Backbone:
């Protein structure tokens, strides 16, 4: 009997038996603990739903269009079919009851077709499909969206014809000019203009030859370029509360900054990369500020100082305690579609004292200004890839 008790195998068996009895006896307690944990999670989710949404439902309809910008370069002669990428929603999507897709929502996309540029002026193109969205609050929304840079065949043919006529006419003009330059005005008069006509015919033939060998442009979509994605399905979505969409801001006691207008503009080189703010500043704080103490800071913490190509009045003005100022200030940025904060810094320490969200202020900008900004951003719609002058083919 004692030998059995001191047998190591028997001791292991008794220990396992006791452990099994303990687990069976306390299984009900474990179940209660797990059940309570699940209940707390449900309560948390319900509270989150109340904070974010109004409780109303809108629909993302077929044929709706969502404005986005891609997160990486898409090139028609580099990318291949099947390549995945992400894009970011640049404008809130609204229904009659409020916002259903906020700015900053991430879209997952895939390249479904590509084509390189070809002769006869036929441009390359890219076709993109989108299958789901990820909202800032973490929801994944299945969608069916499509975007293509390919022109309708009729539009493409018309575009090529117009360009080729331009080449032919240009060739005729050059040919006539060369005939006049080489043979002289007297020869043109003596031949009753036939030398000019002959020169124009030769020039026209040269122009037509240029049109036949001319290659179209490849497509390049870069971060900052706005694409318009057409929705091909109907999706029911909850309506956000306006308070849930407000960006975080930082305030300094006594410094009151109000942004009344936000305009998107072109720089001297024609690029749409300038944000011009109309601001009203009331400085009842204990500090003095100037344009050199402020900047636009985006959601990647990139800092952009006031542009010398805009209104520089505020840039060189000292705003002392007790001063009030109203004026305009411009900033040249790398991507006009990102989220920005107008930030004032402590001159000595270099730390941010106040940060005013442009997204929050943009809600109160007039619809007229918003439409102008949108038209300006849509100006580049062909996504033409510029030729590399150092690329020898």
Residues:
């Amino acid at each position: 009997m004692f030998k059995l008790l001191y047998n190591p195998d028997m001791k292991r068996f008794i220990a396992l038996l006791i452990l099994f009895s303990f687990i069976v006896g306390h299984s009900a307690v474990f179940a209660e603990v797990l059940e309570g944990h699940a209940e707390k999670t449900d309560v948390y989710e319900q509270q989150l739903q109340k904070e974010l949404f109004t409780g109303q439902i809108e629909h993302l309809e077929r044929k709706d269009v969502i404005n986005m910008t891609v997160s990486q370069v898409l090139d028609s002669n580099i990318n291949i079919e099947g390549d995945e990428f992400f894009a970011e929603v640049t404008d809130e999507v609204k229904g009659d009851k409020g916002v259903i897709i906020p700015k900053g929502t991430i879209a997952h996309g895939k390249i479904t077709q590509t084509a390189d540029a070809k002769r006869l002026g036929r441009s390359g193109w890219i076709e993109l499909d989108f299958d789901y969205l990820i909202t800032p609050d973490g929801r994944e929304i299945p969608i069916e969206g499509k975007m293509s840079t390919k022109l309708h065949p009729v539009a493409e043919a018309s575009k090529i014809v117009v360009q080729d006529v331009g080449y032919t006419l240009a060739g005729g003009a050059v040919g006539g000019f060369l005939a006049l330059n080489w043979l002289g005005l007297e020869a043109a008069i003596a031949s009753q203009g036939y030398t000019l006509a002959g020169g124009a015919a030769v020039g026209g033939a040269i122009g037509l030859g240029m049109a036949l060998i001319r290659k179209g442009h490849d497509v390049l979509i870069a971060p900052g370029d706005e694409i318009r994605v057409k929705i091909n399905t109907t999706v029911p979505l909850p309506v956000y509360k306006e308070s849930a969409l407000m960006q975080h801001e930082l305030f300094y006691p006594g410094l009151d900054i109000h942004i009344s207008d936000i305009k998107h503009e072109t720089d001297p080189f024609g690029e749409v990369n300038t944000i011009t703010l109309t601001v009203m500043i009331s400085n009842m704080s204990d500090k003095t500020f100037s344009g050199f103490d402020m900047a636009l800071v985006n959601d990647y913490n990139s800092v952009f100082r006031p542009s010398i190509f805009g209104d520089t009045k505020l840039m060189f003005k000292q705003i002392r305690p007790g001063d009030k100022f109203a004026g305009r200030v411009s900033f040249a940025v790398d991507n006009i579609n990102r989220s920005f904060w107008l930030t004032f810094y402590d001159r000595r320490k270099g730390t941010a004292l106040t940060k005013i969200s442009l997204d929050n202020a943009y809600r109160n900008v007039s619809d007229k200004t918003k439409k102008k900004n949108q038209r300006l951003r849509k100006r580049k719609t062909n996504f033409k890839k510029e030729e590399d002058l150092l690329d020898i083919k």
